[in-house]
Amino acid sequence: MSRSPRRLPGWLILVAAMTAIGPVSIDMYLPGFPAIEQEFATRGVEVTMAAFIVGIAVGQLFYGPISDRFGRKPPLYFGFAVYMIGALGCALAVNMTMLTAMRVVQALGGCAGLVIGRAIVRDRCEPHEAARAFTTLTMIVALGPVLAPAVGGVIVTYLGWRATFVVQMGIALVLMLTMHRVLTESHVTRDTSVSFGDILRNYGRLSRDRHFMALSLLLGFSMASMFCYVTGAPKVITQNYGLSAQQFGALIGLNGLAFMSASILNMRALRTLGPRQVLGRYVWASPLLGLALFTLSLLFALPLYVVVGLQLLFFLTVGRVGPNVSALALAPHGRAAGTASALMGATQSALTTCAGIAVAIFNDGTVHTLAAIMATGASLALLCYLWVRRTLC
After folding, report:
1. Which of 191, 272, 277, 351 is deepest in the core (most CB within 10 A)?
2. 3-state helix, strand, coil in the chain (%, to 5)
3. Distance CA 133, CA 167 (A)
């Protein structure tokens, strides 16, 4: 198998940037939460983040079929325009309700890059090359959670929380102009119907595809298990170990570094192995790590470095799984890669939302409860792999 090229192609860097706009949009305005609540004299700013995630999940189902019918670039123009309108609306919001509504609009535009980016990778790459491309995407996108909160903190401190949305609008404009100049159309077969009935039938056909759905669920449960920690750790870590908000923020930033490390290791492994082999080696690891954290936290009062160390290894193994699953799931669906990418992304968003609800219900502030939820999600991902491992190509 050939080695990856030393220089990344321009289209792949652009696709990674388009994919990263979602995480950046979530993380950049986090430092402004207190200021938003103070200005609007209303608590519950977290609902604006939930609204964004819901918008991402719903919007993906729209862009997939549209990009299969009209090509990849036209829906991207539309998506960037909608995103910029939403970001401007957020910057001009006069109350929490308007901010929440504009966050939905922003998400409905921003998810275009997420869905269509995966489809572009499928258009241009065979499965093995696609796994390397998705690994590169993961590595670049991982910079978002590391850099966005820090950049957002500087913006909020000197310019106010509204400026974070002006910056996001500017990022979208730059990406759209770059896409216009750099990206060539990758989808030339456009015989897919966009009638409502045909779209439903296409989604129904994909949902009956055992191979595709098992891999989509595998990816969804893996990401959901990781999201459990992200949503539950603020309560668990700060209460049990007395960390300040700044110290906890630094720990969260390490998660992005874990994903970057996973991407580097995955890229090296793909020089000699296929995505199926890499997946088979590492899909077992996260359930075992989750179980280890659960068992140890039941038996001992774990020091913080043990909890964080096991959690980072958990994230590292999830990062080894994701790119290979995406490549294997989309490989058989070249003519409908947009629709397949949309359903896979919507499944992931739905399971992530369920994970957040589970944490909200069951999280009692203890490490072992959080670890049990994480281990459950990772174990469900493993079961999905066992369901179809004999048919993976």
Report:
1. 351
2. 85, 0, 15
3. 28
Q: What is the pLDDT of residue 190?
A: 56
Instruction: Provide the token pair at 24.
Output: 């950046």
Global pTM?
Answer: 0.79
Q: Are 28 and 152 in contact (CB under 8 A)?
A: yes
Q: Which residue has the tokens 């203890």?
A: 366
Scan for tokens 């080696």, then name that residue: 281
Phi, psi of 283 (to 5 degrees): -65, -20
H or E stretch covering 268:
helix 245-269
- Residue 221: CB partners within 8 Å, gap ≥ 6? 351, 377, 378, 380, 381, 384
**DSSP E strand stretches across the chain:** none
Tell me the average confidence (pLDDT) per consecutive run of 10 residues in the chain, 393 residues long. 55 86 83 86 80 86 85 91 97 94 94 88 83 82 74 86 95 93 75 71 89 94 87 79 72 79 89 91 95 96 94 93 90 82 87 82 89 95 92 72
R_g (Cα) of the chain, nearest Å: 20
**pLDDT, position 376:** 96
Rounded to the nearest 10 degrees, what angle do helices 127-141 and 96-124 cross at? 150
Distance of alpha carbon 388 from alpha carbon 390, whole angstroms: 6
Please state the length of the chain.
Answer: 393
| Contact residues for 218 (Cβ-Cβ < 8 A; gap 6+) | 283, 321, 325, 381, 384, 385
What pLDDT is stored for residue 1 in this prediction? 39
Residue 239: enclosing H or E segment and its boundaries?
helix 210-241
Contacts of 39 (CB under 8 A, 6+ apart): 161
Predicted local confidence at residue 165, as pLDDT? 96
Q: Taking each helix axis as running N to C, give the angle between helix 127-141 and helix 304-330, from 0 to 180 degrees, rounded to the nearest 10.
A: 140
At 188 the pLDDT is 66
